[in-house]
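RECORD TYPE: inverse folding
INPUT: structure tokens
STRUCTURE:
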């Protein structure tokens, strides 16, 4: 490694933040050891405290796999583990976010009234009605009809459509992305945004501070603000011990004039449009939503903005929009999910479980990661045992080798029970798609891993009986033809891999 590269790493924001956090951890450990050595009263109080924390963790209402790492830590380090749990689960920051979230939710209430046409949906398909009802009751996202969905099977197609739509903006543009990186893709978008600001168009941008830590200058939001573009870095990363760092904004949303919206797996960086080869060919997907359903995406953006910015946006100017009505016999519901401090349910996870449960013929899934809890694994295996055609496409070339190992460690039990797994030979699959029976589908940002299913702020578009589902199915079959099927023999791990798997499986739910 050259001296220049080493200097760049050592002086990077990520490296400095990591060192500060490690020093905080070491200081806490030193104080804890000293107090317990020189104070017998402290030892007794600490043991009582540890027991109370243990009871609290056991009785928390959450996915069991999330409890396991803390229980092991507290049992191995009876007192220190309890202190670490309390430290990482401090809720002062999340209380502020929740308060701001609830304040915006009140303003959005008139726009979240359920569509009376949902009764027609109940007559058409019971499973569709139940899923739509679930999304309304948990995510506050009403059923929308008279909407159109266009599916993009690759980043290059999405990029062209996005630029065309941005160029037509007349009133406002909202963009919320996990990653923005300067290059061909973002620079092209940025030029249009700057031009639109000069034309009097309202432009607001949210990017995730951690996701862009090594992608953008630390104070890039100030550069955009100086250009007249409203901009905030979501959940600004601070070098303190806290679990709030896990609650990243992993959403990808664009809303234009309240009549066109985009979402899917594609971030605003060059690898997503194959402008350069990072991990082989980058296979991703996105959807464009037009019509009434765009209001759901607008509400998601307004909630995210107002939750983190004192200069809150008024909802009325952006939601009192009359989009064109499209002839559609189906349903389109964009929805959001996030930290359990904000959302009470793991909505993305439960939508997937509901779809697997409702499937009668087949379930087709594309996901970059396959590191999910027992409930999803069991649902997939049970569906295959019932005789359903369950197929999953994962990357052939990984972006993170340890994560890829954890993904591959789940192959064997799935393949053994009849799930067909394929690895995309040309490169990296980043699409997050669920398709059931050609009738239901989800395209969004929600991976099959703990980060997406539990920790991150995510979004997706649930669809029933719309044309885009057919396009998604064709794309899945075409992608499967370029993939290598995983046999029972290929699914087996070596002894060292099993050891790594067994250790990491304990802690992955927290990561």
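DESIGNED SEQUENCE:
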């Amino acid at each position: 490694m050259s001296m220049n590269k080493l200097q760049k790493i050592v002086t990077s924001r990520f490296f400095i933040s990591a060192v500060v956090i490690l020093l905080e951890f070491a200081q806490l450990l030193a104080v804890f050891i000293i107090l317990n050595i020189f104070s017998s009263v402290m030892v007794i109080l600490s043991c009582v405290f540890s027991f109370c924390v243990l009871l609290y963790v056991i009785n928390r209402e959450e996915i069991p796999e999330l409890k396991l790492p803390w229980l092991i830590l507290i049992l191995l380090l009876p007192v220190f583990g309890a202190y670490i749990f309390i430290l990482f689960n401090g809720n002062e920051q999340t209380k502020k976010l929740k308060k701001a979230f609830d304040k915006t939710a009140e303003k959005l209430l008139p726009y979240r009234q359920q569509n009376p046409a949902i009764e027609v949906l109940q007559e058409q398909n019971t499973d569709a009605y139940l899923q739509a009802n679930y999304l309304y009751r948990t995510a506050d996202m009403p059923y929308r009809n008279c909407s159109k969905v266009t599916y993009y099977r690759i980043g290059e197609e999405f990029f062209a459509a996005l630029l065309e739509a941005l160029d037509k903006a007349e009133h406002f543009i909202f963009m919320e992305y996990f990653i923005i990186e300067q290059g061909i893709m973002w620079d092209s978008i940025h030029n249009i945004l700057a031009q639109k600001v000069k034309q009097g168009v309202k432009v607001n941008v949210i990017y995730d501070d951690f996701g862009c830590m090594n992608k953008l200058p630390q104070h890039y939001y100030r550069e955009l603000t100086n250009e007249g573009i409203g901009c905030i870095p979501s959940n600004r990363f601070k070098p303190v011990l806290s679990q709030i760092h896990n609650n990243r904004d992993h959403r990808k949303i664009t809303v234009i004039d309240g009549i066109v919206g985009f979402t899917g797996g594609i971030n605003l960086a060059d690898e997503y449009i194959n402008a350069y080869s990072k991990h082989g060919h980058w296979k991703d997907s996105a959807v464009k939503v037009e019509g009434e359903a765009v209001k759901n995406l607008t509400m998601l953006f307004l909630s995210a903005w107002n939750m983190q910015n004192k200069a809150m946006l008024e909802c009325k100017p952006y939601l009192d929009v009359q989009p064109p009505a499209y002839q559609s016999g189906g349903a389109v519901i964009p929805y959001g999910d996030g930290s359990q401090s904000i959302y009470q349910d793991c909505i993305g996870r439960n939508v997937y479980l509901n779809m697997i449960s409702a499937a009668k013929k087949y379930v087709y899934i594309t996901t970059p990661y396959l590191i999910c809890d027992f409930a999803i694994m069991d649902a997939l295996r049970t569906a295959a045992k019932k005789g359903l055609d369950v197929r999953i496409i994962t990357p052939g070339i990984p972006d993170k080798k340890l994560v890829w190992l954890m993904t591959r460690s789940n192959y064997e039990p799935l393949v053994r029970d009849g799930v067909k797994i394929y690895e995309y030979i040309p490169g990296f699959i980043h699409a997050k798609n669920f398709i059931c029976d050609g009738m239901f589908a989800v395209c969004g940002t929600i991976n099959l891993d703990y980060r997406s299913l539990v920790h991150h702020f995510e979004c997706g578009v649930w669809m029933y009986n719309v044309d885009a589902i057919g396009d998604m199915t064709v794309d899945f079959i075409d992608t499967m033809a370029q993939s290598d099927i995983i046999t029972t023999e290929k699914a087996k791990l070596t002894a060292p891999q099993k050891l790594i798997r067994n250790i990491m499986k304990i802690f992955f739910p927290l990561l």
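NOTES: The CA atoms of residues 126 and 496 lie 48 Å apart.
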